[in-house]
Specification:
With about 160 residues, the chain is of the alpha+beta class. It is built from five helices and seven strands. Helix content is about 30%, strand content about 35%.
Length: about 160
């Protein structure tokens, strides 16, 4: 497995994996994916046997990003590392890819911020993600409804 910074050549594959991961991540278009590629503090991909196996997009505070969950953390924290989205392909699950990406993102934040944040869907429920985040050391610090009440998320933090 190899973790590398995203390149423009990766974006089509990353967008397909993102789409395959809805509703656990929100659907975005190529313009938004390109914005992440040019703006995100952390946007890395994992390849396994030459195939895209996963990706993680991590943001820092202070960006003009309209996500209601990112805004919640911006309003409640001075600084943070925010996991905007992480996805692992169906063929690469249970290989530790998400954990390696989280560890790599946390390492990129060391000495700069003391908390990593994210959200996990409560409605529709993403129980496996909630279990994973609790085991990894995240604790719930709030909840929020989004998409006009269609979704509800648990807002999580982990001290670094």
């Amino acid at each position: 497995m190899q973790i590398t910074d995203v390149t423009p050549n990766d974006l089509d594959e990353v967008l397909r994996l993102n789409d395959d991961s809805v509703p656990h991540v929100s659907r975005i278009d190529m313009a938004q994916m390109e914005w992440f590629a040019s703006t995100a503090h952390y946007f890395r991909v994992v390849r396994h046997e030459q195939q895209l196996a996963g990706f993680l997009i991590g943001l820092r505070a202070g960006l003009p990003y309209a996500s209601p969950n990112y805004r919640w953390f911006s309003e409640n924290y001075t600084d943070f590392g925010y996991v905007d989205r992480v996805a692992v392909s169906a063929t690469a699950r249970r290989m530790g890819i998400a954990s390696r990406l989280y560890q790599d993102f946390a390492a990129s934040l060391q000495g700069e911020v003391d908390v990593m944040t994210c959200e996990v869907n409560i409605r529709p429920a993403n129980e496996s993600s909630m279990r994973y985040h609790r085991q990894y050391g995240f604790v719930q610090v709030g909840t929020q409804q989004t998409e006009g009440g269609k979704k509800e998320v648990a807002l999580l933090e982990m001290k670094l």
